[in-house]
Structure formats: C-alpha cells, structure tokens
Amino acid sequence: MITDKLFPSDRKCNCKNKKKGASSFDLQNPYDLFSEMQFSNTDTFLDLGFGAGDFLIFAALHIGSQGKVIGLDKNESLITAFKDKLTDLNIDINYIPIDIDCADITQTIPLDDNSIDVCLLSNVLHGIRNDNSKQIVINEISRVLKVGGSLNVLECKKEQMEFGPDISIRLSVDDIEQMTTEFGLIRKSYKEYEYTYLARFEKETV
Q1: Closest CA to 91 of 119, 59, 49
Q2: Who has the most CB within 10 Å: 10, 102, 194, 198?
Q3: Is the alpha carbon torsion for 75, 77, 79, 81 positive or negative?
C-alpha cells in the first residue's frame, strides 16, 4: 500500500528538525494519532490550517474513495506547495478525495452545517492570539460538525522545550476545554506523546 511506503507503521518520532515552524506531523506516530481520533473510511475529515499537508495525505490514503478529506488554510503559497507535493508523490486526487481551499478560519469556515465527522486542529489554536478569534473558530467548528462528530486538538505540551511555540502562548488541555464546553464540545479523551498531546472533543448537541 502507498500509505505504508510513505508512512511506515513502525515510524518513530522524528525530532531532528525541532526548530520553530517544523511540521508537527513528525512529533508522534500518525497511526497511533489517527487511531485516537476514531474515524472510519466513510467519514468526512477536515484539517484546519493544514500547512504542509501531511495529515491531509495520511487521512486521505486511509479513507480512500468512500469518504472525503477537506483542508483549509489561509496561506495561498502553502496551498500551491501542497498541490505540488501531491504531484511529486504521484497521488491521484481523482481517487484520493482531497478538497483544499483558501480560507481564514478566524472569520468563517466555508462549509455547511453538520457536514463534518472529524476535525483536526494541529498546532493551530495557540497561534490565534485574540481570544475572540479563538471563540469564533470553536463556534464555527461546532457548527460544521455533525452531532457525535469530533474536534481533535493536537498541541505541544505546556512545558519548556528547545523548540516549538513560546511557553507563554502554549495551551494546556484545561485551557482548551474552557473554550470548547461553551459550544457543546465535550472532552472524551486525552493522550500525551513525548512532546505533544491530543485532546478529542465530541459535539453532543445541535
């Protein structure tokens, strides 16, 4: 399978390039991470602020043609680079259902209500400095999630490290939970990795 070739199942945490701005994809085993997200091959998966796009590709290769993968990012140059990456990897987007678009998620998420099964925010939330903007993002995620759908927040631990965001802007799971509860997103699981953690929240009400 192409998934195994690109992402070996025995893949180890690759932290050789731990400088600020390095991809968060390499900080934990993606197979374990996606298992924690509990998604199926018929789900619609949304990656907000997808950056380098590795999570998008991994999700799409697992979901296949039965589901759908959507990526939104406000940086047009990253979108162009991601399209080039798909071409370089010889990934056929006619089979692998990846839809990508340019959008500022602190304004709105250009998707229908109750249309998403699984949403991923990977090292994005800490970078939204304005509290009101954070609330807009969480509210919009709650709007587009189906009842029973999940928001999965991957962030660096709120600990002093030699790489990643400054500790003053890092978010603990409690910080995030204070934001999500107001919008009907209830924490269901929490898992720590060496440098990061994944918190999964489910939408319980419309």
Answers
A1: 59
A2: 198
A3: negative
Q: Which tokens in the block code for residue 178? A: 């204070």
Strand-pair category, 116-122 with 68-73: unpaired
* Pair type for strands 68-73 and 44-48: parallel
pTM greater than 0.85? yes
Angstrom distance (rounded) from CA 33 to CA 36: 5
What separation in angstroms does the CA of 39 have from each of 44, 73, 88, 167?
9, 22, 27, 31
- What secondary structure does DSSP assign to 13-53, as a single string? P--S--STT--GGGGS-HHHHHHHHT--TT-EEEEES-TT-
Chain segment 180-199, per-residue pLDDT in tens: 999 999 999 999 999 999 99
Question: Exposed, middle or buried: residue 90 (CB in 10 Å: 0-12, 13-18, 19+)?
Answer: exposed
**103 burial class (0-12, 13-18, 19+ CB within 10 angstroms)?**
middle
What is the spatial distance between Cα 124 and Cα 137, in angstroms, rounded to a whole number? 10
Tokens of 103: 């959008």
Instruction: State the distance between the two ends of the chain, measured CA to CA, in whole angstroms.
Output: 38
